[in-house]
Structure formats: structure tokens, C-alpha cells
Amino acid sequence: MEGEETRGFPNHPLLTSSGSPLASATSTAAPALLVVGTYFVPFLLPILPRSSSSDDHLVIGELCVVSPCVQVDLDALKGTHLGMYEQRNVTVLVEAGESASEVVAAEAYFVHTSYAKA
Predict the structure, then answer these.
(1) With respect to CATH, is domain 12-117 assigned 3.10.450.50?
(2) Burial call 6-31: b when 16+ CB within 10 Å, e when fewer
(3) Residue 13 phi, psi (nearest 5)
(4) Domain limits of the chain?
(5) 89: pLDDT confidence band, cut at 50, 70 and 90?
(6) Which of 26, 67, 70, 115 can bridge 92 by disulfide, Cβ–Cβ 3.0-4.6 Å?
(7) In percent, how much of the chain has pLDDT > 70?
């Protein structure tokens, strides 16, 4: 989780009350852009703006394991049916010790492409 469901943000209780276990702290393997918008709502942009230094755009988050029921609730919360957010496959680096990371396939919510172009 990279946004509102991360610890300290408003929607984290949805995960804790559902019993979804936190698997690990993570970061994206590739550059991405996390923006905190209006009303303290963080979201990932699907389009990375041109930057002189791409390695400073790795997004730190949390990897959670969610059941199909919780996934449905998250989709409703994120408004995927309204075109507000879309799920995308991402590669994340999971902490696997003091100096090692494991590469893991995951899914993340990105704000819809039309919003990112605005």
C-alpha cells in the first residue's frame, strides 16, 4: 500500500479490521511519483514527469496480503468502477535482511490516467 491505506493514513483501519496482514515494508523497484493531494490524500501518478535524477522517485510503502472480499472493498473505496483509480502491476523491493532485498510482483492503485494528464 502506498497511500491512504498505509499506517497513519485515514483508510488504514479498513485493513486492520479485516485482518489483512502486513507482509513487509517495501519500495517500488522502478521510479514512480507519489503525490499528496487535496485533503491529505496520497496517490500514485501513472506518468513519471521528466526528471534529471530518476533514482529519487522510488516510493516507500507497505505490502499487504488481502482476501478477495477486502479487494472488493478496496476497489469500491478507490472508485475503480467510477474510473477514479486503476490497479496496475508493479515490482517492489521487500526488505529481506539488513543488506538484501527481494523482488516481488504486486499491485498498486494509481490515479486514473486522465487525472494524471490534467
Answers:
(1) no
(2) beebebbebbeeeebeeeeebebbee
(3) -55, -25
(4) 12-117
(5) very high
(6) 26
(7) 75
